[in-house]
Amino acid sequence: MKLGLIGLGKMGYQLALNMVDNKLEVLAFDVSAEALASIKKEGVQVVSSYEEMVSLLPKPRVIWLMVPSGAIVEKVITTVSNLLEEGDILIDGGNSMYLDSIRRYESLKQKGVHFVDCGTSGGTDGARNGACLMVGGEREVVQYIEPIFQKVAQDNGYGYMGNPGSGHFVKMVHNGIEYGMMQAIGEGFELMEKSRFDLDYERVANVWAHGSIVEGLLMRNVHTAFQLDHKLTKIEGIVDDSGEGQWMVEEALRTKVALPVITQALYSRYKSRDQSKFAEKVVAAMRNVFGGHAVYPKK
Prior knowledge:
Layout: E1 2-6, H1 10-21, E2 25-29, H2 33-41, E3 45-46, H3 50-56, E4 62-65, H4 71-81, E5 89-92, H5 98-109, E6 114-121, H6 123-129, E7 131-136, H7 139-152, E8 153-162, H8 166-193, H9 201-208, H10 217-228, H11 244-255, H12 260-272, H13 278-291
Parallel strand pairs: 1-2, 1-4, 2-3, 4-5, 5-6, 7-8
Antiparallel strand pairs: 6-7
Helix pairs in contact: 1-6, 8-11, 8-12, 9-10
């Protein structure tokens, strides 16, 4: 099957190589000339514009987007869909909010263009060697392009989730769970760091990654991180988030579902970026006023 791939960032670049390895004929495009030149050297066919991609794809055209969620993917979908015809298929493989995906599906359906939402997990290694794919959309449309998903996913790593929006919904929940698991792992290693023992964290992570209840990709990632930086002295403890945790907490508030672990993990990420620590200053000031407790002057 021949398809277009738009977006050659960290995930899209590796996904393009995965597709070629699995005998899919790919036409790749990115706004970065450097990314296009690099992927071309890897043997992937590139195009210079959306228009060229659309002109070279057989009907019904299949175009997979791997661009950032929000305004960027919105702009790309609008631009590309105006070039497509009835029966063509757009796949959003990024981390879009599922309500946006439902809206895009409904809007594109009016033009006769099919929209499929594909939650993609597994990181760059998964994109390269076998991704985890959670797909939502009209069943008959997904069935038509299912061979693509089956080729680029690892064994049993692809699943049809259901109606439009369900793929990105399941991916949102996946990422919220990931927040909680990562936070728990981080807190465990912090307790070990404050303990009386001189522990080798690379060794701990390696043991836990082989046969323990908490083994898995995240623990293997921790092991790799400690291999590269034995005490993590080269990085700051500042944790960004890409939105899915917030969306999940907002969904929980709408549906009145308690998510204490995931919510706290999200707040911990926010707090990691707090340079002013104003809340802590207010608490310290109160303790000083009512009890004469010590405060620490700003250095």
